[in-house]
Design goal:
mainly alpha, 4 helices
């Protein structure tokens, strides 16, 4: 059973976190370009793989249930939760940029102005998405280091 959990944990880590990181890191480029179709795809991809990333946490917790008090697991799980919280902010900012660029009406009924004005408003999200995506990527790497070298066994 432990081998199956390990395979699921590693499989989810590879096939969920990789595409998730790629989608979030490429989002700023397409916000700058104003490509609504690609941005819509990246937003959907981020949400789907973000949910799949919960499998990494679930199978990791089940795999390490006997060792949850060990520092490397506690730190890794805490960092994973922080990364998911930051990911929620990225999804929010992707959605804001998508609404601005697609010209959707806001709650106040305004259409957002000209296409150039909307692009400028959407570019506000670029820095935040880029920074948060970078931090999330570094968190994944720190967790990887903790899993490989932090495990005393």
């Amino acid at each position: 059973m432990t081998d199956l959990l390990l395979w699921l944990h590693i499989g989810f880590a590879i096939f969920a976190l990789g595409p998730l990181t790629a989608a979030t890191m490429s989002t700023p480029r397409f916000i700058r370009a104003g490509d609504v179709n690609v941005l819509r795809y990246l937003h959907r991809t981020t949400r789907i793989y973000g949910i799949a990333a919960l499998g990494v946490f679930l199978f990791g917790a089940l795999l390490g249930r006997e060792y949850l008090g060990r520092p490397y697991l506690s730190v890794s799980m805490t960092l994973f939760i922080v990364a998911l919280a930051l990911l929620a902010l990225v999804v929010r900012d992707q959605g804001v940029a998508l609404r601005i660029l697609s010209g959707d009406h806001g709650k106040d009924g305004k259409d957002g102005g000209t296409a150039e004005g909307r692009k400028g408003d959407a570019k506000v999200q670029v820095g935040r998405v880029a920074a948060l995506s970078g931090v999330i990527g570094v968190i994944w790497l720190v967790i990887l280091v903790l899993m490989v070298w932090g495990n005393p066994s």
